[in-house]
Design a protein that fits this description.
The structure holds three protein chains of three kinds.
Chain A: H1 4-33, E1 34-35, E2 46-47, H2 50-58, H3 61-92, H4 98-106, H5 113-126, H6 133-157, H7 161-169, H8 174-203, H9 206-211, H10 219-228, H11 232-256
Antiparallel strand pairs in A: 1-2
Helix pairs in contact in A: 1-11, 2-11, 3-6, 3-8, 6-8, 7-8, 8-11, 10-11
Chain B: E1 6-15, E2 18-28, E3 33-37, H1 44-52, E4 59-64, E5 67-68, E6 80-82, H2 94-104, H3 109-122, H4 138-150, E7 156-160, H5 168-185, E8 188-193, H6 196-202, E9 205-210, E10 213-218, H7 220-225, H8 230-235, E11 240-247, E12 250-253, E13 259-260, E14 269-275, E15 281-283, E16 292-302, E17 306-313, E18 318-324, E19 335-339, E20 346-349
Parallel strand pairs in B: 3-8, 3-9, 6-7, 7-8
Antiparallel strand pairs in B: 1-2, 1-4, 4-5, 9-10, 11-12, 11-14, 12-13, 14-20, 15-19, 16-17, 16-19, 17-18
Helix pairs in contact in B: 2-3, 2-4, 3-4, 4-5
Chain C: H1 22-58, H2 70-77, H3 79-109, H4 117-129, H5 132-142, H6 148-155, H7 169-194, H8 197-205, H9 210-238, H10 242-247, H11 254-263, H12 268-298
Helix pairs in contact in C: 1-12, 2-3, 2-12, 3-7, 3-9, 4-7, 7-9, 8-9, 9-12, 11-12
The chains are: A mainly alpha, B alpha+beta, C mainly alpha.
């Protein structure tokens, strides 16, 4: 469509869309890196990093960051440990009632987080798992594992059997085959599953909100707490740190995958 | 006299109720090139995998150099395999792909490099050693596959329809390459294909398979000249078939009862007479000749170096004749004589049971 | 772990063993079962058990023993309870409609290649990749009485009073749209991509104007994607928590309400009943989504 009105309209729509999506994030940055931003000002009066220092001192931002990272890493490790064998079995073995099995594994992502967070909170409280890194990580694994399984099943199903056959004929025993052929070929998928798991834990709010304690505050929870106490700038600063992994992940994903193909599993709120 | 390289004895394989291989027995001498020829589903690929060991037969024995290897797992049999889909490892360069079996055998670095270059040179690909498979064309990938399969001097080289995934123009080139390499290495080879031209061109002997059995075994010339049943004849590309009945040394065309002169005595009973399209002689003049049939041209197609005619006999038979370009062209609807020289005919009993080979 | 040579006719087997016959298949089954066990046990302990606990809690009376449906009745039978449901469903419905209206032109726009297309795709994915808490915070600031939108609106003289968006229902709908429309957009884009381009071409060649081609040929083919996308968005809106928690003010859709009832009123059984209802509705939506997906593919 070469006529000017259409082109103009399209440009306006695109510009409007870009603003619509990106402005809220711009606000976060302004809040985090600006001072004296109130009233009808468009921009803060000064730029500063003091909120981060403030957060480090008053709400132990470093400690919170370490908590979040620790829990996320632990979640990733645990999620992979349980998901790798399960995904291998689902992808390459003939198991009975496979659709039901897969449904059972994906179910945690089909119902709202708050619904099972209630039960988890009570039970963890009773077994003294609340306010522990391991406890929160265990809870996060149930959010991460479905993602990991979906990605890994797809990866393992995609392994070309003929490559495995070639490896065998050329002399690889079972262990050697796994080491030299299966693992390298599956590595991108395993890395993706690990990233998904990490992100699911790092970003999680609802479940963590129900099982956290004074020693195990995570970045999302701290953002909420700071906001509740009225410390908007601190909340903004913490949010910027929260944003980093997600943005990196998004860039990496878009480099490799077409967006339409991304909706493999179901994401929670 | 040395041991045959490969002996298969009474191999059976079932998948559920389906008998994929039934009583297969074969002997392959050293340095021999054997083709397993047949349509899809005949079991040739399964048989190949019985040889490599990725499929275990339900009955029978696989003997390599006189040793029973039936229970030996695939990774210990030291065989080489070239795949239809190339099966190159995408995460390794060409050189690393070819070096892979040498690494698995923990060969010394320098020896590895030497052999890899040697193998790549054999397939004329030394220049592409550092590329990745995805950067290569299909033909190049297959040559890498070939290099990888021979670099560790396997006992037997197996090829699973290696030319099927290549463009038609590349196939002949690749076929020559395979022929040259296997001959230069004097390696025993088993080649699976559904293309009879490949089998005829490459092999020392051919085993024609159908539904899990070997229906004919012999040299390419022998099989081509004397297929034992109509299935094989059709498979070998005999374009014309006439149902006949043989009685007392003479054959009658079923359609109209006229006599068909055949080259040699044939068993009595229903049979099929085959003749190649390019053996049919077309004449416009009326000099009588044996097996001269009156036909009309119903269609013709220009094939480049020849013209293929579709002819219709008055009794309803359809014949195909392929004539080199240069002679007179006969138009649609033209009346013409089709002569079937008796020495070019073969007569095969219909519904003949498949004799086994080997 | 052993390698498996995949044969179309036979159950996958470790190389070198016969997979046919009862002994081979049984061993296969045991191995497979063993591999899946850790995950299943884990889910049973950390997910299904707490879930069962919640269901049990929802039918436990506040005092005494036995079973009761009083909590469900209190929720579904009371004005407040129904109000919560109506609020949640209403918000979700409004946001879904607007999201679909936004997604369709967007999906069409992103079909052809043009400079900046990648960037637009990146942008479109933003709301669902970042933690919803952060997105909600940004939205709060942007649409505040002294936020950019109001500054611009007032400076341009379009209004004399700032718009109240934060903590209002229309505001929540807007926020939901921002947060969740990409889910639908992705589904619709995928559906759009699945339409054979030859269909459009055939229509044009046969003389139909582009508008006719769109409404008569493409839209019907997109129908199942549109429905699937709508259900997906609705699902996310229904389950929203962070957004209404932070930006809903006094309006509490069901997720937030459950949290309040549990943590502030400490009425765990009541909260459990609400959670079960919410869970059933959401699970139902998921089933609907998958059913549409299957039906769409069959078409």
């Amino acid at each position: 469509m070469r006529n000017l009105p259409w082109v103009l309209a399209r440009a306006v729509l695109v510009a409007g869309f870009v603003l619509f999506i990106s402005l809220p994030l711009v606000m976060i940055l302004l809040e985090a890196f600006g001072a004296n931003w109130f009233g009808m000002r468009m921009l803060p009066a000064e730029w500063t990093l003091r909120w981060f220092g403030w957060a480090a001192r008053t709400v132990d931002l470093v400690g919170v960051l370490i908590n979040t990272a620790e829990i996320a890493l632990l979640t990733t490790g645990l999620a992979l440990v349980v998901s790798l064998p399960a995904a291998w079995a689902i992808a390459r073995y003939r198991l009975p009632l496979k659709p039901i099995l897969i449904g059972v594994i994906l179910f945690p992502r089909m119902i709202p987080e708050i619904t099972f967070a209630l039960g988890v909170a009570r039970i963890f409280y009773d077994v003294h798992l609340t306010n522990t890194v391991i406890g929160i990580a265990l809870a996060h694994v149930m959010l991460a594992a479905p993602f990991a399984v979906v990605v890994l099943v797809s990866t393992f199903e995609g392994l070309d059997s003929r490559l495995l056959e070639a490896g065998t004929v050329m002399g690889c025993g079972p262990l050697g085959l796994f080491r030299r052929v299966t693992l390298p070929l599956a590595l991108p998928g395993i890395v993706a599953a690990a990233l998904f798991s990490f992100l699911a834990s790092y970003n999680d709010f609802v479940l963590t909100l129900m099982v956290y304690g004074a020693d195990t505050v995570t970045l999302p929870v701290q953002t909420y707490l700071s906001l509740g106490n009225g410390y908007l700038s601190v909340a903004g600063a913490i949010s910027t740190i929260l944003l980093v992994p997600s943005l990196l992940f998004l860039v990496a994903m878009l480099r490799m995958v077409r967006p339409e193909n991304l909706l493999g599993g179901l994401k929670g709120a | 006299m040395s041991e045959p390289r490969l002996v298969l004895q009474h191999i059976d394989k079932h998948y559920g109720r389906l008998a994929v291989l039934s009583d297969i027995s074969l002997t392959v001498p050293r340095g021999h090139f054997l083709s397993l020829l047949g349509p899809s589903g005949c079991g040739k690929t399964t048989l190949l995998r019985v040889i490599t060991g990725t499929v275990t037969p339900d009955a029978g024995r696989v003997m390599v150099n006189g040793t029973d290897v039936t229970r030996v797992p695939a990774y210990r049999r030291n065989m080489g395999m070239v795949f239809q889909s190339f099966a190159l490892f995408p995460h390794l360069t060409v050189a690393d792909n070819v070096a892979f079996p040498l690494r698995v055998r923990a060969l010394a670095r320098e020896e590895q490099q030497k052999r890899v270059i040697e193998a790549l040179r054999m397939v004329h690909l030394e220049a592409l050693a550092e590329r990745y498979p995805r950067e290569l064309s299909g033909g190049q990938q297959q040559r890498v596959g070939l290099a990888r399969a021979i670099v560790y001097r396997p006992t037997i080289l197996l090829l699973d329809e290696p030319l099927s995934n290549l463009d038609a123009s590349l196939r002949e080139e690749m076929r020559l390459e395979i022929s040259q390499v296997t001959r230069a290495l004097e390696i025993t080879a088993v080649y699976v294909t559904h293309d009879q031209r490949e089998a005829l061109a490459l092999s020392d002997s051919i085993a024609v398979m159908k539904l899990g059995r070997i229906v004919q075994f012999g040299s390419p010339e022998a099989i081509y000249a004397a297929p034992v049943n109509d299935f094989i004849a059709r498979f070998l590309g005999y374009a014309n078939e006439l149902p006949v009945v043989v009685g007392d040394g003479a054959a009658r065309i079923e359609a109209d009862g006229s006599t068909l002169h055949i080259p040699a005595p044939a068993p009595n009973g229903p049979a099929t007479a085959f003749i190649h399209a390019n053996a049919v002689v077309l004449e416009t003049s009326g000099a009588p000749a044996p097996n001269r049939l009156a036909c009309t041209v119903t269609d013709l197609a220009f094939m480049g170096d020849s013209v293929e005619y579709v002819l219709r006999h008055k009794a309803g038979l359809q014949l195909k004749a392929r004539v080199p370009v240069g002679g007179a062209i006969h138009g649609r609807g033209a009346a013409i004589w089709a002569v079937l020289p008796p020495d070019k005919l073969i007569v095969v009993p219909r519904d003949a049971g498949p004799p086994s080979a080997g | 772990m052993t390698a498996a040579a995949r044969r179309p006719e036979v159950a996958l087997a470790p190389a070198g063993t016969a997979a046919t016959g009862p002994p081979g298949q049984l061993r296969h089954l045991l191995l497979g079962g063993l591999l899946v066990c850790p995950l299943l046990l884990f889910l049973a302990a950390v997910f299904y058990y707490p879930l069962a606990y919640t269901v049990v809690q929802s039918v436990t009376p506040s005092a005494g023993g036995g079973w009761t449906l009083a909590h469900y009745a209190a929720f579904l039978g009371s004005r407040e309870g129904l109000g919560v449901l109506v609020l949640t469903l209403g918000l979700s419905l409004a946001a879904t409609l607007l999201s679909v209206v936004l997604s369709l032109p967007l999906a069409l726009l992103l079909r052809r290649r043009f400079p900046g297309r990648r960037a637009l795709q990146f942008l479109m994915m933003l709301p669902i990749t970042i933690p919803s808490l952060v997105g909600a915070l940004g939205l709060l600031i942007l649409y505040d009485r002294t936020g950019w939108l109001n500054v611009v609106v007032l400076k341009l003289g379009l209004l004399s009073q700032p718009l109240a968006i934060d903590y209002t229902i229309p505001g929540l709908v807007l926020f939901y749209v921002w947060m969740f429309f990409p889910y639908g957009a992705l589904v619709i884009m995928s559906g759009l991509g699945a339409i054979d381009p030859a269909v459009e071409e055939a229509g044009l060649v046969m003389g139909a104007k582009p508008r006719v081609v769109f409404f008569r040929l493409m839209l019907p083919l997109l129908r199942s994607s549109l429905w699937a996308g709508a259900v997906m968005i609705f699902l996310q809106c229904f389950g929203a928590f962070s957004v209404p928690l932070i930006a809903g003010g006094n309006w509490q859709p069901i997720g937030v309400r459950i949290y309040t009832v549990a943590n502030v009123f400490l009425d765990w059984p009541q909260a459990s009943a609400m959670a079960v209802v919410m869970g059933i509705i959401q699970a139902g939506l998921v089933v609907a989504y998958q059913a549409i997906g299957r039906g769409g593919r069959a078409a």
